[in-house]
Amino acid sequence: MSDAANGIQTASALVSRVFCGPEAQLPDMLDARERRAAMQRTLLAGARDGESLLSITLSIPGPHKTSDVLERVFDELVDQAVDALDGAAVRERTSLGGVSGPELMMLVELEPLELKRRVSAVEETHPLGRLADLDVLGRTGDTLFSVQRTEIGLAPRRCLICDGEAKACARSRAHTVLEMQEKIAEIISQGGYI
Q: Residue 142: what pLDDT?
C-alpha cells in the first residue's frame, strides 16, 4: 500500500473514531440554539454586578457533534477554562447537551472583558483550543451582549484548513465537512486525546 493510501486510511480511521456519535439533524441544532439562548437569558437575568456568563461549546462542523472522544475533548477544555479563571468564583454552572453536543454555562464573578481575556488564552495556547467556543456574555440593563475577540486586541478566529478568517470560510463553505473533520481528528490525535 502506498504512503498516500496509508495516510488516507489513517485519516479515515481517525475520523471514524472521533465522529462516531449520533447524528444531529437540523431541528436538533435549531432546538439546541433556542435552548442555549433561553438559558443564557435566564442566567444573565439573575447575574449580580460584576458577573459575566461563560458559555462553552465545541466548534464541530457536520452532523456528528458528540462522541466519547469529543466528550473527553470538551471535558479537557472545560478544565482549562476553569483553570484560566484563576480562582474567580463561579456561582452557577448549567450543563446542556445531547445529540447537538456538550455545553456548559457558568456565571463567573469577573467583568466581561476580563473574563474574555482569561479564557481566550485557552483558545490561543492549548493544543485543543481551536476546537473550543468560549463565548463571554454580559448584561447592561436589559440588553445582553457578547464580547468579541477584537475587543481585547485579538484577531478573529482563523480557519483550521487555510488560516483565513473562520467565519468567512464557514459562510462561503470553502471547505467540505470531511476536510474539517479530518483536520479536527488530526488535532485531537496530535494532542493525545485519541
A: 82
Cβ atoms within 10 Å, residue 96: 16
188 is written with which cell numbers? 485531537
What is the spatial distance between Cα 34 and Cα 28, in angstroms, rounded to a whole number? 10
Query: At a CB cut-off of 8 Å and minimum separation 6, what does 194 contact?
Result: 14, 17, 18, 69, 185, 188
Cell numbers describing residue 25: 439533524
The tens digit of pLDDT for each residue in 145-178 reads: 999 999 999 999 999 999 899 999 989 999 999 9
Radius of gyration of the chain (CA): 17
Give the pLDDT score at 191: 83
pLDDT attached to residue 163? 85
Provide long-range contacts, Cβ within 8 A and 24+ apart, for 84-92.
Answer: 84/118, 84/119, 84/121, 84/122, 85/110, 85/115, 85/118, 85/119, 86/118, 88/115, 88/118, 91/48, 91/51, 92/43, 92/46
CB 26 within 8 A of CB 51: no
Q: Coil, helix or strand for 82?
A: helix
Confidence of residue 125 (pLDDT cuts 50, 70, 90): very high
H-run or E-run covering 122: helix 112-125
State whether residue 143 is helix, strand or coil.
strand
Q: What pLDDT score does 3 carry?
A: 47
- The mean per-residue pLDDT over the stretch 76-102 comes to 95
